Amino acid sequence: MTSDPQQSPGSGTDEPAILTSFVDGVARLTLNNPRRKNAINLVMAAAIEEFCDRVTSDPGIGVVVVDAAGSYFCSGADTRDLASSSADPASPEAVARTSAVYGAFVRVGSLPVPTIAVVVGGAVGAGLNLALAADILVTTPDTVLDSGFLARGIHPGGGHISLLGRSVGRPHAIAMAACGQSLTGSEAAARGLAYAAVPAADLAALVDGLAAPAARDPELTRRVMTSARLELGPPAVPWSSAIEIERGVQMWSMSRKGRESWSSRGPGRS
């Protein structure tokens, strides 16, 4: 097991921006700003990018789990950065700040392995973007998932409407982004935004059950995810194209498996 906490230079605290671990093919990223409900600041965004660089370059990693310290997943972008950007939103400095936050969850959503977001308490704005960027979202029944931008009087950012739309469809995306509606974890699971909503005590077992098979064979998992991203999009491809995308990779996996391994009696038996 290895860990690599990312420090927040000049913040006046010894608390790392994120906590990371890499164990048996599972990479874990834990947001670590609980005093501000894990709001994403520039230091945290940079640390997330570094974590993603390591995952991308390490072929031994087969799955990523994203969670958070404390009782709340992520309250969005740090309001102090939003306030600074609001002074002159078109300035290079403001664009760089928002782009850094966007880049963090875009990188998570582009990783070559499946990503599992464990959302407890709530996720708002850019925090919901981070959760939706993951391939699989698991949560608790009473967690609140809230667009949040409308309440702050600003337009959604970071492709928020698109992320919502691909998860819950047009009507629910408009209801959340333009009409200020939120979803509980149970509602999110019922509408397809979350994979499952279970009691907090059961989350660890659920995540382990999802992560273990993916971590067992990282090379195969990465090839499956390449096909999944090509086929499912966005944009998704037609079935005929999906067949061709999978053909060569399935042949590779079959040749790797070998003829003898198909025997019900095990390798070397007929």
TrEMBL record:
Pfam families: ECH_1. It comes from the Bacteria. SUPFAM superfamilies: ClpP/crotonase. This is Enoyl-CoA hydratase. It comes from Gordonia terrae NBRC 100016.
